[in-house]
C-alpha cells in the first residue's frame, strides 16, 4: 500500500488531486476551531451531556459542534437536502424529467439542492440559536441573526469544499469531510480512555473487549459493504450492419447494503426532535414522561431506533432502485434473465431478490446503530461515540477512495491497492 501511494505521488495529475484534497481537508480542520462570535463555548459544550446523539453529531463534525465553531452544524443540512431532493425526484414530474435529461438535468437538480441546503441550514441555525439562548453572550435580536447566519455560512462553505474535492480531488468530497471529522476525534478518544484507565473507572479487560468488538465490526462492515447478489443476465446476438453485438453472459449486481448510512441519518434525525423539544420543557408532565421512557440509549428508544432504520432502509432502497426500470433497461438492450420472460416477470423477480437482501442489510444497519449501547454495557466505557455508525462511514469512505485511486493507477498500468 505504501509503495502504491509513493507511485501515486509520482504521477503529476494524481499528485495534484491528492494535494488539493489534503489542502481542502486542512481548511475544514482549521474552520472547526474558529469560534462563532457571540457564543460562550463552555455553555455550548454542555449540550453534549444531554445524550449520545449530540455526541455522535460532534464526532461527525470533528469536534466543531463542541467547540461552537463556524462548522458546528457540519454538512448535515446538505445531506438532508440531498435526501429530500432524491425523494422529491420520484414524486414531482418536473424533477423526474430533469433526472432523465442527463448531465444538464443533473446540474439543475444539483443547483436546486444547493439553494435548498442554504434554506434548510438557516432554519436549523435559527432553531439551534433559539435553543442556545442561555449560551449567548448578548441575547439580542442582532446577535441571534449573527449567530444563525454564521452557522449557515459555515455549512454553505463546507458544501462548497465538498463539491470542490469531488470535482478536482480524489473521492467523494462530502463523504471525505465526514470521514475526516470522525477520524480527527480518535486521538482525543484515546486520551479519554487513558484517563478513565488511570482513574480506575475502567480496566485493561474493558479496553481489550473494545478492541475485539471494533475489529469484528470492521470485518463485518467490509463483508457487508462488498457483499453482492449477482443475477445472471444473458444478452442475445444482434446484427447491426456488418457487426454482431451481444451474445455474452453478464450479471446484475445488487448490493446487500444499497442504502448506505442514509437510513441511520434519517432515523436519528427523526428521533432527535421530540427529545430535543421535550428537554426544553423540564417540569412538564408529558415532557418528563417522554424523557424518562424514551431517553437516548434506553431500551424503548433503541427498539424504536432499530425499527425506524429497518423501515427507512426498505423505503430508501425502493426509491433509488426501481425493479421495473431495471427490467426495462435489460429488455431494451436485448438481455434477459435465464428462465424468466422479459418485462413483468423479470421485474417481479428482481423485486423479490432485492426485498430479501435488503432485509439482511437493514438488520445489519440496525445492529450497527445500537452498537454504542452494547459497548457501554460490556465495557462500561462512558461516552463511546465512535461506535458502529462511525466505523461504517469510515470503512465505506476508505474503500471507495482506495478504489478511485486504484482506477487512476490502473489506467496508467501501475499496480494499485487492490490485486
UniProtKB/TrEMBL annotation:
Bilayer disposition of the protein: Multi-pass membrane protein
Keyword Cell membrane recorded: yes
Pfam family, one: SecY
Regions crossing the membrane: 75-95, 115-136, 142-162, 174-196, 202-224, 260-281, 293-316, 357-378, 384-402
The keyword Transport is assigned to this record: yes
CC terms in the record's Gene Ontology section: plasma membrane
Main location: membrane
Keyword vocabulary terms for this entry: Cell membrane, Membrane, Protein transport, Translocation, Transmembrane, Transmembrane helix, Transport
Cited function: The central subunit of the protein translocation channel SecYEG. Consists of two halves formed by TMs 1-5 and 6-10. These two domains form a lateral gate at the front which open onto the bilayer between TMs 2 and 7, and are clamped together by SecE at the back. The channel is closed by both a pore ring composed of hydrophobic SecY resides and a short helix (helix 2A) on the extracellular side of the membrane which forms a plug. The plug probably moves laterally to allow the channel to open. The ring and the pore may move independently.
Family per similarity comment: Belongs to the SecY/SEC61-alpha family.
Oligomeric form and interacting partners: Component of the Sec protein translocase complex. Heterotrimer consisting of SecY, SecE and SecG subunits. The heterotrimers can form oligomers, although 1 heterotrimer is thought to be able to translocate proteins. Interacts with the ribosome. Interacts with SecDF, and other proteins may be involved. Interacts with SecA.
Protein name stated in the entry: Protein translocase subunit SecY
Amino acid at each position: 500500500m505504501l509503495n502504491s501511494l509513493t507511485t501515486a505521488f509520482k504521477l503529476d495529475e494524481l499528485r495534484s488531486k491528492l494535494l488539493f484534497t489534503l489542502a481542502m481537508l486542512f481548511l475544514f480542520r482549521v474552520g472547526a476551531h474558529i469560534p462563532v462570535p457571540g457564543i460562550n463555548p463552555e455553555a455550548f459544550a454542555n449540550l453534549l451531556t444531554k445524550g449520545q446523539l449530540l455526541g455522535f453529531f460532534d464526532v461527525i463534525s470533528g469536534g466543531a459542534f463542541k467547540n461552537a465553531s463556524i462548522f458546528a452544524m457540519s454538512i448535515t443540512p446538505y445531506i438532508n437536502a440531498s435526501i429530500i431532493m432524491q425523494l422529491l425526484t420520484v414524486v414531482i414530474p418536473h424533477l423526474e424529467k430533469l433526472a432523465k435529461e442527463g448531465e444538464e438535468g443533473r446540474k439543475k437538480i444539483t443547483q436546486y439542492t444547493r439553494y435548498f441546503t442554504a434554506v434548510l441550514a438557516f432554519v436549523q441555525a435559527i432553531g439551534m440559536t433559539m435553543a442556545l439562548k442561555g449560551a449567548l453572550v448578548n441575547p439580542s435580536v442582532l446577535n441571534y441573526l449573527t449567530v444563525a447566519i454564521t452557522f449557515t455560512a459555515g455549512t454553505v462553505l463546507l458544501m462548497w469544499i465538498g463539491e470542490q474535492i469531488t470535482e478536482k480531488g480524489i473521492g467523494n468530497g462530502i463523504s471525505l469531510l465526514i470521514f475526516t471529522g470522525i477520524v480527527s476525534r480518535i486521538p482525543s478518544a484515546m486520551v479519554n480512555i487513558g484517563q478513565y484507565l488511570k482513574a480506575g473507572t475502567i480496566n485493561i479487560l474493558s479496553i481489550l473487549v473494545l478492541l475485539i468488538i471494533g475489529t469484528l465490526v470492521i470485518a463485518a462492515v467490509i463483508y457487508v459493504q462488498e457483499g453482492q447478489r449477482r443475477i445472471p443476465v444473458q444478452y442475445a446476438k444482434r446484427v447491426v450492419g456488418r457487426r454482431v453485438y451481444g451474445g455474452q453472459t453478464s450479471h446484475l449486481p445488487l448490493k446487500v447494503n444499497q442504502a448506505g448510512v442514509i437510513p441511520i441519518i434519517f432515523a436519528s434525525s427523526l428521533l432527535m426532535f421530540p427529545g430535543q423539544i421535550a428537554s426544553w420543557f423540564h417540569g412538564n408532565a408529558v415532557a418528563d414522561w417522554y424523557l424518562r421512557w424514551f431517553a437516548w440509549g434506553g431500551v424503548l428508544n433503541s427498539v424504536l431506533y432499530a425499527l425506524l432504520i429497518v423501515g427507512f432502509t426498505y423505503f430508501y432502497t425502493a426509491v433509488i432502485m426501481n425493479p421495473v426500470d431495471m427490467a426495462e433497461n435489460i429488455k431494451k438492450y436485448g438481455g434477459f434473465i435465464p428462465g424468466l420472460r422479459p418485462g413483468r416477470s423479470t421485474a417481479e423477480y428482481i423485486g423479490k431478490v432485492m426485498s430479501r437482501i435488503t432485509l439482511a442489510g437493514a438488520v445489519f444497519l440496525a445492529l450497527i446503530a445500537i452498537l454504542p449501547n452494547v459497548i457501554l454495557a460490556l465495557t462500561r466505557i462512558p461516552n463511546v461515540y465512535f461506535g458502529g455508525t462511525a466505523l461504517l462511514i469510515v470503512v465505506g469512505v476508505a474503500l471507495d477512495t482506495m478504489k478511485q485511486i486504484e482506477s487512476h493507477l490502473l489506467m496508467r498500468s501501475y499496480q494499485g491497492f487492490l490485486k
